[in-house]
Amino acid sequence: MIIGVAGTAKNTGKTTALCALIDEAYRRGRIPGVTGIGYDGEERDNVTLLPKPRIAVRPGMIVTTSEKCLSASTARLRVLRSTEYITALGNVVICRVEEGGLVVVAGPNKTADLAAVSQQMLSLGVADLLVDGSLNRIAPMAVADRVVFATGGARSTDVHYLTEETCAIERIFAHVASAGDLSAITGIRMRSRDLSVQAPATPVHGISEIARVFERMPEGLEEIVLPGLITADGLGVVCERMEKAGGQGVTLVFDDPFKMLLAGDPVRIAALLQRLHAMSVDVRYRRPSDLCAFTFNPYYPAFDGTTYRAATLDAPSGRAALAAALRTPVVDVQLDGVGRVYDACFSSEI
Amino acid sequence: MKKKRILCVPLDPVHDVGIKIIRNALAQRGFDTELLSPDLPLEDVVRIAAQGSYDEILVSRTLGYGVAELLGRFVDLLDAAGVRSRARVTLGGKAITAELAAELGFDRGFDEHSRIEDVVAYLEGKPAESGATAAAKPKPDITAGYSYKVHDARIAAALDEIVDKLLRWTEGKSSPGIERARLRASMFEERNAAQHAALLDRYLSVSDPVIADAFRKGILPKGVRVVSETERTRLKELLADRHQHRPVSLRHAGERPLFFKFLGSGCPVMDIMHAKVCERWGVDGFLLINPSWEARYEGLLEGTLTHQNDGTVTSGENIRLVRELLEPSTLLTVRAHRGLNTPETVLLAGLAGADMTKIDLVYGSLGAGTDPARLAVDGVEAIRLAAKFRMPYDIPGNDELSGVPAWKTLAGLLINVHLGTRLGARAILKPLFCYGPHIVINGLMEQTFVDYNAAKIHALRSIVDCPIWPGEPIAFMTQTEDRVQSATASSFHAALGTSLHVDAMTIASTDEAYSRGPICMASRIDSLQALHEAARFMGKAAVTPTSAADAMTADMHAKIAEVLDRVRQAPDLPAAISSGLLGDREDGAYPGTFGRGTVA
Q: SS3 for A113?
């Protein structure tokens, strides 16, 4: 099982949640593996210079990092494998922890590299693999089976906005897998009962690309497969065209919820998906992902124009506002512990 | 070999200068480059990047509030569009580090100090450490290439005779300072504890009670304490965890002049931390300055010691700690000529691996308080030790600060140089770039600071082929309490020194004369920033003195010759100093009294 810990912004508590999940795994007699898609575990934040939690690992764990980070780790690591994957801090290495301590995790930061390294870690016997996110980066999290989202004061100090955005993320994830194998489709494909129209692959589906494809929309449309990236404006055009054509009963298949998050502001994307839902369009993903928990971190770095200082939102009320609006569990790791998050990550059903 | 296709992306609404510079440099090297406009939405950039089959994508962006998230999203978009499986994505800009690039998901990061060559090497797949010094910097030798030949026959003859008389006068003479230096050398070699204890007893018998109490009873002078093992360990740990950086260069072109700063906060730990920051800002070397009270005591303390006042205690351990933690290419000089421990200080500096020392028999006797006879015998011994350890020594002309005319001061410097040459050592002339009392009283810089300072350099060059290092610091007595003024004064004088092709200069921090305590790091950087800007502004252009400087040079040369003729006629150098030939009471110079009657 690969669990991704993603964040809505820098300093939202990804590493805190990850460290708590490691401890919880040990408490339950499991030995997790850890990799990451950025650089994490340093003493101070690279931008704000405020102290950051560091990743504590225990003997027996398998972790990946980059060569140049080995000397910065206090844990004694034995390199099991030096991979061909390169980061800004050198080649990615897969290590076994021989003596516990702190590590700086700097794993592969591209989706393809993360997928390959994750498989290598699983082949080395890692059963529960935790993937540490980085900033607001989410694309590589498509590799994960399940994902935990960290949010909080560092994303916004406006709890109302945080609630709205978190609900939007929940909505974006709340779509099931498409039926059948659609993995070979590279360009937008529209299919009716009698006809299938496929456009050449394009890297980004914006207004013009969507408009061009919809000019060739067949009568009696049953399914649209939209592989790759779509922009929020492109999705807006999809909504308009579906409304004109009457989209009732049409299945609309996107790649995965992470690419939907990349389309633009989650609140806007969720609203557009809601419009499609309202006209009975069946939205699905080729590769869905289970959103199993949100962590709420009240901490945020307050900027006075010159320097940053540590500040916090009202933790209980912030968490309560989110929890009231969401079906997904919301946990303040510091206040509640991480047990519920762990259960959500590793239970057989969500 | 097919050149790579490179997409240059200024992800910034207004700033695209940096990426244009990079693009032009890459285009000149034959890369196939395309530069985007700086105001495209991320999605459009991704679309172009995905459709253009580029090998490399170079992104330029200054870090600011919210920019990290923007860059993270951009990398994600490239990833999701499949671009990252075909092209590397590199980030450049101010405040970009390798760690930040990794965190943001880029393949590589280049900061503002990275060179075009670093970027090209990376793009071509050649090894180059961005931001790190590619090769070990060689340690400079200020004295290399100088013959020490005296061009002026009259002055050469005078100097020969003065040095002959001095060496004859010192022959067979000794002092407690010389005895202690020899005992210290024996103690350094002695491995037998009993023998070592016996040597220490002899050492303390020719030391002051204050020094003996420190050794025998552990009672250190007021304000002095031992730097603990924990403090030393933490300091080394802190410095071990540094990232390599290419230092700022204080020179816009060429290898000279070198730039030096003082250390001597009293605390070796603070000295080292200041030095490490200054190294990063391009400083080439440091002068370790001792406390003034040390000059009055016979004997030196032992151990890593911190002192709650100006001046860092002279001990082998303190010197070794500073030397050990400086970059190998950074020069360290240790002041030796103030007071009663000159030979011993040179010995400790040599044993601790210092690169240079500071000895001036004339100024040490006139401005620094040591008896002329004592410093004559101690100085000769100290110069012999400097020769033995192959440590060049500089000769500061600080007697000018008392009011001694420049020509007398420069005559004293030349005596010291010639003595060193005779004893197999290599000296460095240190005329002041200052607005000293004699200059003020006589209106010698009424029109400009340039002419008279230039005349000193030209006069010395017309006399001897020897390195020149204006000090100490340059712009002495032109600086005020205003930090901007102080930095500006330093930078103008540095521009003059560079124009005159001097070998080195000592730079004051902007609060050097007014700190009322330890100088602060920001003030050091003030002065270095000003220097850097002055070097950039001047480039290979020069400050040109007016025609008045020629007359001043000729007058200076003639007066130096006259002074040396008078000194030549004195029975010996101590007698010449005591009788005021190199600076008298009218000039504000008084022969020192420390150590009077101790020469045997």
A: helix
